[in-house]
């Protein structure tokens, strides 16, 4: 199973992708390419519906990959994504902790 975090970054007007898997750039594009656009659309539709259109429309925002530590052991993705959720600073586009993937 593959785990990643998609963060609606209101400060920078983009959807940040935090992916701890050690993919090549090509693999990352193949894996996130199709689904990232669907996630963005569906999430935007939900926000628009839930807020009656009062939430900013982010259906066309960019989807940049944020540099994050990559897993060494393949089943650690879940733990990394939980750390990303807890410690991601979207304003500065970085983590507020140091993660040593080997430890």
UniProtKB/TrEMBL annotation:
GO biological process, one term: proteolysis
Upper taxonomic lineage: Eukaryota, Viridiplantae, Streptophyta, Embryophyta, Tracheophyta
Signal peptide: none
Residue ranges of domain Ubiquitin-like protease family profile in the record: 1-88
UniProt protein name: Ubiquitin-like protease family profile domain-containing protein
Similarity field: Belongs to the peptidase C48 family.
Gene source species: Panicum virgatum (Blackwell switchgrass)
Keyword Hydrolase: yes
Keyword Protease: yes
GO molecular function, one term: cysteine-type peptidase activity
InterPro entries reported for this sequence: Papain-like_cys_pep_sf, Peptidase_C48_C
UniProt keyword terms in alphabetical order: Hydrolase, Protease
């Amino acid at each position: 199973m593959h785990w990643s975090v998609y963060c609606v970054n209101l400060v920078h007007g983009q959807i940040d992708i935090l992916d701890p898997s050690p993919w090549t750039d090509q693999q990352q594009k193949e894996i996130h390419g199709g689904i990232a656009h669907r996630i963005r659309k569906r999430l935007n539709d939900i926000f628009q519906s839930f807020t009656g259109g009062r939430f900013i429309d982010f259906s066309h925002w960019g989807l940049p990959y944020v540099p994050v530590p990559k897993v060494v052991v393949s089943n650690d993705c879940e733990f990394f994504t939980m750390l990303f959720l807890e410690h991601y600073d979207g304003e500065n586009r970085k983590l507020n902790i140091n993660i040593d993937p080997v430890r």
